[in-house]
Amino acid sequence: MEMKDSLLNNIEYPSDLKKLKVEQLPQVCKELREFIIDELSHNPGHFASSLGTVEITVALHYVFDMPNDNFVWDVGHQAYGHKILTGRRKTFCTKRKLGGISGFPNPKESDYDSFIAGHASNSISASLGMAVATKLEKKDNHTIAIIGDGAMTGGLAFEGLNNASICDNNLLIILNDNHMAIDPAVGGVSDYLLKLTSSPRYNRIRDGLGGYISDERKGKLTRLTNSVKSLLGKQQNMFEGLNIRYFGPSDGHDVVELVSLLKDLKRIKGPKLLHLITKKGKGFKPAEEAATEWHAPGKFDVETGEKIKAIQTDQPPLFQDVFGHTLLELARENDKIVGVTPAMPTGCSMTYMMHEMPNRTFDVGIAEGHAVTFSAGLAKAGMMPFCNIYSSFMQRGYDNVIHDVALQNLNMVFCLDRAGLVGADGATHHGAFDIAAFRVVPNLTIASPINESQLRKLMFTAQLPDKGPFMIRYPRGKGVQKDWHCELQELTVGKGEKILDGEKVAVLTIGPIGNTAAKAICELREEGINAALYNMIFIKPLDKDLLREIGKKFNRIITVEDGVRNGGFGSAVTEFFNDNDIPMIVRRLGLPDAFVEHGSPDELYSICGLDKESIKNEIKHQFSAL
After folding, report:
1. How far apart are CA 57 and CA 504, in angstroms?
2. 503 is catalytic
3. Nearest to 377 by CA among 340, 349, 352
């Protein structure tokens, strides 16, 4: 979007922004917000979060000097403005597309992206490391962590705060608070404290006094000033309690005031936190009123706010909705069932149960490890938790699964949403590693349904008594069945199924990618190539009887999975034949030993050799080799 007499059009890099007068910055913010709204209306992405950080972004780039200084964004949802101001305005239309720029900060893409930012709560730890390195190397650059109140719920954020309080560093933490105030505003006293504690005069006095007293008394002075501020503010401040200087809360949408504050804070030594109150979706009324719905809304009409949806008739449901409806159905019959999710009740559709049974559903915040161990406690006390975590986010709960769940062989269910390639969110969000990571864990059952009906049956099976820890993985998006609401039935754990009979070559699949393999095999039959198809359902335990039967009948096997090939389902099948002295040539199709970038799912599956044509070509190759 090009605007006549636009300030934004003349800003390619932060150096251009610095040429403007501070009085012009509100106009820059207005144009930047309009640019984001217009661009995302027809090229979707993460919407509400970046609208809420426009003034913060402009002020930071006006005061500090990237890339010499470091900005560490906690989750890139809030960093679109940063990308636009750092050389990517003209390529912003390519974001999240194959070969285009990423939807998240990525150092491989730009020197202005200091750290990867696809998941939450890591900014304080990462930026603290940078700040300490700056001290050790006697450099004078600045490091700023920008973290939201949601990400602050993660345990890693508190670990970073704890360490920042004892390290020699000059870290600045920007707390972007768009939901609840950790330190509520207290009117005139709060404003007075903000101006007092950020003023050069106050800090010259405070730091000057420190030059005349011993190290022992310095600590007492710091505690004294913190106590005075707590007394005036009428409550204890957790950050000041950690000896992290606290400033705020302040209006995160007053860019002129923010510039003044940041200039003052730039001169203050030691760890410090600026608490800013912002509004998610700022500047676009529908997003302000329903920020969750406008997190990533897809295409929409800028004038009316109406979302533009593709015309769909009689489509299969989303896998997440099948999970949500089935969980509620099961919970109505089993009063031991509880739902647990780390800040994704809408994303995983646990909202259905949450609305009907709010006392039995728990959103624990962005804290995957806690979600797992909290669920373990519920299970140990006799409840049946369904803990729903996106596959890529579950990586942060790996230790908890092993030590707190599997070691005790607790009865609970993990539902891993977004397994496989998720598309435009890219490498930080693909559910690539869960099969390889978890199949080595004792006591853990791992399954993946080929369709929605099988998901329902697996969920029913998993909540039956004495099943131990049970993990079910399924993909993002729509399934294949329009009529999915089947009768709930128990499946035999570790039992696969034959889908299509054949000769010489058998294709073994796990999960919904089996439907792609089925299409490939059916098309090849028209060419006289008759491969067999088996849906294994369970990765652990494998159906050993079925594998022995396959080993006797076929000369070659192709395994297909939408997880990493190394150590995954195909590796498990290969290990079985090797361990049981069954001579078999196994060709494994799966994700490569590389981080897959962003693009549409169809594009990415093709690139990774997991689309229909790639599977057909592999089957042909194996038949020709016989």
Report:
1. 61
2. no
3. 340
